[in-house]
Amino acid sequence: MRAEGLTSLRRVWRDHRRAMWIWAAALAVVTVFYLAFWPMMGEEMAAAIEGMPEGLMAAMGYDRIGTAAGYLEAVIYGLLGPVMLLVYGIGLGGRLIAGQEEDGTLELEFAAPVSRLRIYLERLLGSWLLVATLVVATTVAVLVSGPLFDLGVEPLNVLAASLGLLLLVVGFTTLAFALGAAGARRSAAVGAAAGVAVLAYVFRGVANAAGVEVLGALSPFAWMLDPEPLVHGFEPQSLALLAAISVIAAPLGAWAFARRDLMT
Amino acid sequence: MKAAVIDVRGLVKDYGRTRALAGLDLEVLPGEVYGFIGPNGAGKSTTIRVLMDLLRPDAGEVTVFGQAPQEGGPALRSRIGYLPGELALTGRVTAGEHLHHLASLRGGRGRQRIGQLAERFRLDLGRPIRALSRGNKQKVGVIQAVMHEPDLLVLDEPTSGLDPLLQHEFLELVRELRARGATVLMSSHVLREVESVADRVAVIREGRTVDVDSVDGLRRRAGQRVMLRFAEVPELSSLAALPGVERPRLEGTTFECQLHGEPDALLKAAARHRVIGWVARDRDLEELFMDVYRLGQATGIDAAPGTGAVEAPDAR
Fold first, then answer.
1. Is this prediction's ipTM beyond 0.85?
2. Interchain contact, A113 vs B90, CB within 8 Å
3. Among B74, B88, B104, whose Cβ lies nearest the Cβ of A105?
4. Which of B18, B106, B137, B147 best probes binding to A when mutated, by most A CB atoms within 10 angstroms?
5. What percent helix, strand, coil does chain B show, rounded to 5?
6. Which of B134, B25, B19 lies closest to B88, judged by CA?
7. From B16, which residue of chain A is nearest by alpha-carbon distance?
8. Does B104 sit within 8 Å of A104, measured CB to CB?
9. Residue B180, CA distances (Å) to A144, B141, B150, B173, B176 in order
10. Is B106–A112 a contact, with Cβ atoms under 8 angstroms apart?
11. Does the beta carbon of A264 lie under 8 angstroms from any beta carbon of chain B?
């Protein structure tokens, strides 16, 4: 007899929803808090950055910080959003198979009459849903802050930036998940995904500061931010690149997961 | 003869460079309760995880209901109830919610029996699973393994953590399942836990089957510990050479030995002397198993890997 619809997914949601809502509240509060400074800081910021070295400003993405879109990008989409969401998503991705396999809590699910592929897909989908809810919370906070603090950024462009952020975070979540499913220990899966994320961040910084375009081309952070979605809106090509992280990692993880020993 | 429910031949499993199973054999027939005995680290859990398709064999043949575990997949596992050796339960969900979740993974099968089984084992379904004692966690494990009335039960150290009263209740449950036609494989590192329900027992050691017999057969083979006290020092050789006498020892006027088979010859030989005291007690099966664990074939117990046969008690 087949398992009832989405049993594993519902369990993932149930086990993690409480912590996720706390993260959602934290993200929303931090977002509103930082954006609330814009009316005060807008002009001062423009004046303050006059004196900063050009390279440093470019590396930090502060070269446009004097505009509302630049401020929103530098503070939320370029820093706080991805950092907080990646910490959450990569940790979650490493836990949902590798972590729960190590602590033994998945043994009965593995032994149940459910295929490994189905366990894999439902748990991966569960991680995406949790991460997506956090991105939605962040996005709502940005959209609410817009008129409140006179940001003057197009709502549609905010959605475009948020979609890029979602695909970036889902990508690294999927990477940690797939590595763990493929047999890496939880710590190794989380460490590898986090390491790649940090490299990607550094690559973009170096690319912008020193003009090394190759590094920028390799950095998912550059894919997400360089098309300036808050100014120009949706840019399909870079969104496709961001989606490719998940599209490539997910099937490889599933392939390895179906072939290996569990609970060793 | 009916086809075996579990048929394992020459199973080899390595963890990296460590050989966990080195050609293990196991044959469990329909409707029998089969004890799977060995010290910790002998390969019991590894074998069981191969049956559940958690681990994939490196060599050898494994079938459950005629199918390889991997090939049988979810459909095969739906016929099996499984209790892991170390059941990990964490999280905020209650015991009842967790059992409902596990029933849902089985398409809802067994859900309606959760309440009744919880009552029988006195498990409070409303408590969070992470707050349960070891014994109560084990109850959750037992309930989820039997609730869907599987054709085959694979139980890894099922009675560990249960108090004597619940052990008794559990063994009663196993008997009921057998009466219903289910086949049961249960592992333990002590024979005592399975001897009252098991029809047959396999002893494994270092990844190999070293002995297979019925519990009665084992009991007969375990023999007796005999002590005879004489009025004067007897001649050791006259007693030591008798059929069935093993490990003879003479200390002063006291003769001690293990005795297998009928005591007739020893009694008649002893009767030629004046006997002033005697003790004969059945050897604990545990003692026999300790011999097997420690010495393998050197105990006079035939190591008969792969025969799966019930040996006659006086075959040696």
1. yes
2. no
3. B88
4. B106
5. 35, 30, 35
6. B134
7. A264
8. no
9. 64, 21, 10, 11, 6
10. yes
11. yes
Contact between residue B185 and residue B153 where contact means Cβ atoms under 8 Å apart: yes
Q: A181 to chain B nearest CA, in Å?
A: 13
If you write DSSP's letter for every residue of A8-28 in order, what string do you get? HHHHHHHHHHHHHHHHHHHHH
Side by side, the strands of the sheet bearing B6-15 are: B18-28, B6-15, B59-64
pLDDT in tens, chain B (316 residues): 568 999 999 999 999 889 999 999 999 999 999 999 988 889 999 999 999 999 999 999 999 999 999 999 999 999 999 999 989 998 889 999 999 999 999 999 999 999 999 999 999 999 999 999 999 999 999 999 999 999 999 999 998 878 888 888 999 999 999 999 999 999 988 777 788 889 999 989 889 998 898 888 887 777 888 999 999 888 888 888 888 888 899 998 999 998 888 888 899 989 889 999 999 988 777 777 777 666 654 344 443 333 333 333 333 3
| Close Cβ partners of B249 (under 8 Å, ≥ 6 residues apart) | B255, B256, B257
Would strands B200-205 and B33-37 be described as parallel, antiparallel, or unpaired? parallel
Rounded to a whole number of angstroms, the distance from the CA of B243 to the nearest CA of chain A is 49
- How do residues A215-243 score in pLDDT, each as one tens digit? 888 999 999 999 999 999 999 999 999 99
Query: Is the minimum CB–CB distance between B278 and chain A shorter than 8 Å?
Result: no
pTM of the model: 0.86
Tell me, yes or no, if B112 comes closer than 8 A to chain A by beta carbon.
no
- Nearest residue on chain B to A114, judged by CA atoms? B74
Q: Do A111 and B84 touch (CB under 8 A)?
A: yes
Q: CB–CB of A93/A234 below 8 Å?
A: no
Which residues of chain B does A109 touch, with a Cβ-Cβ cutoff of 8 Å? 105
Chain B contact set for A8 (CB, 8 A): 105
A262 in contact with chain B, both atoms CB, cutoff 8 A: yes
Find which of B54, B76, B147, B154 to mutate to test the A interface (most A CBs within 10 Å of its CB). Answer: B54
A105 to chain B: nearest residue by CA? B88
pLDDT tens for chain A, 264 residues: list them: 567 789 999 999 999 999 999 999 999 999 999 998 887 776 666 666 666 776 666 666 566 666 888 888 888 999 999 999 999 999 999 999 999 999 999 999 999 999 999 999 999 999 999 999 999 999 999 999 988 888 888 899 999 999 999 999 999 999 999 999 999 999 999 999 999 999 999 999 888 888 888 888 899 999 999 999 999 999 999 999 999 999 999 999 999 999 999 988
3-state DSSP assignment of residue A183? coil
Q: Comparing C-alpha atoms, which of B227, B221, B228 is closest to residue B244?
A: B221
**Of the candidates B54, B55, B104, which has its C-beta nearest A4's C-beta?**
B104
Tokens of B125: 């379904």
Q: CB B105 to CB A8 under 8 A?
A: yes
